[in-house]
Amino acid sequence: AWQEAWWRQWGTTQGFELIKHGGEGSSGLYVDHYRYKHILSVKCLQFVGTNYRRISTPRTEYNTLAGASGSDPLGVLRACDWTEAVFRDVLENSELTDQLRALAYTSGWHWRVVARDRAYSIDTSSVFEQYLQELGKNTRARLFNRRKILADCGEVGFVQAWPDQFDWFFGLLNDFHVNRWGQRCFNDKSLAFHREFLTRVLNEGGKPDLSVMTIDGEAVSVLYNVSVGGITYNLQSGYIADFHPKLALGTLHLGYSIERAFECPDITLFDLLAGSGKNENYKSRLATNHEDLISFMLVRDRLFQWLYRLKP
To answer: Is residue 32 within 8 Å of 15, Cβ to Cβ?
Structure first.
């Protein structure tokens, strides 16, 4: 659903050529044809859902290549024409990363690390109370204990904005982000992508969760989750940053969502994905697990290999 929705929105970008459709556990591949600084002709092979240098889109993590039993998922790298290949947000400790590093070595391709990050998740197969006890004192207070202070501010309520109030939900999310970060979270094209993704993911057994937390009927926090395949993915959040000096509304709202995941027998993992907060890496304090992600480049063209070796 994510792959198809992404390609529907950005696949018509000038220079994009689809090489392989994604789905069923495998990322799609395409080649981006363009001129770097209007001089050097580049053919950049990359995952559907990502783009290196040219456009900015919602981040796609846990990219991978998979093939049917007995097939060669890396055969497309040898078969198609490309200058460089950029594989973003792949599990660093994975068979794919090892295979591509080995392929680069045996083929005489240059290997460059572009970025590293860490994705965080919470094992929800135990009970919520046990999870809370294993948190630090301050983290537990921000996530759960200060619900009493929240209740003193007014009547706490929750509104499910999917599917009928999509525009209202993402309008709130953008407004909260403008106030906190100085810019919208999603532009019009990204909003169209998320609408299509959420519609498509229903056909894969997914469950969208556009949660709005209210105080006396006023929206104070929003949480964008999607549950699919036994995992709840926390894609985005937004909230009133200065609502109360003792409350972190976003963390409290997240606490309610995490608690529901523990209570749902079909959910075994609450995935916070990669990235950190504005002032602190709150995900590392909440997580029980983490996965290291790596983004790397394979450079096939000899001229480009030489140029990249000159680059610090």
So the answer is: yes
Task: Give the separation between CA 283 and CA 272, rounded to whole angstroms.
Answer: 7
pLDDT in tens, 225-277: 999 999 999 999 999 989 999 999 999 999 999 999 999 999 999 999 998 76
In three state form, how does the secondary structure of the chain look?
CHHHHHHHHHCCCCCEEEEECCECCECCEEEEEEEECCCEEEEEEEECCCCCCCCCCCCCCCCCCCCCCCCCCCHHHHHCCCCEEEEEEEECCCHHHHHHHHHHHHHCCEEEEEEEEEEEEEECCCCHHHHHHCCCHHHHHHHHHCHHHHHHCCCEEEEECCCCCHHHHHHHHHHHHHHHHCCCCCCHHHHHHHHHHHHHHHHHCCEEEEEEEEECCEEEEEEEEEEECCEEEEEEEEECCCCCCCCCHHHHHHHHHHHHHHHCCCCCEEEEEECCCCCCCHHHHHCCEEEEEEEEEEECCHHHHHHHHHCC
Across 102-128, average pLDDT: 96
In this model, does residue 23 exceed pLDDT 90?
Answer: no
pLDDT tops 70 at residue 24:
yes
Average pLDDT value for the chain: 95
pTM of the model: 0.95
| 289: nearest Cα among 145, 97, 134, 65 | 134
Which amino acid does the sequence have at 72? D
The pLDDT of residue 70 is above 80: no
Using CA atoms, how far apart are residues 183 and 175, in angstroms rounded to an integer?
A: 9
**Please, are residues 293 and 121 in contact by the beta-carbon 8 Å criterion?**
no
Nearest to 120 by CA among 294, 295, 289, 293: 289
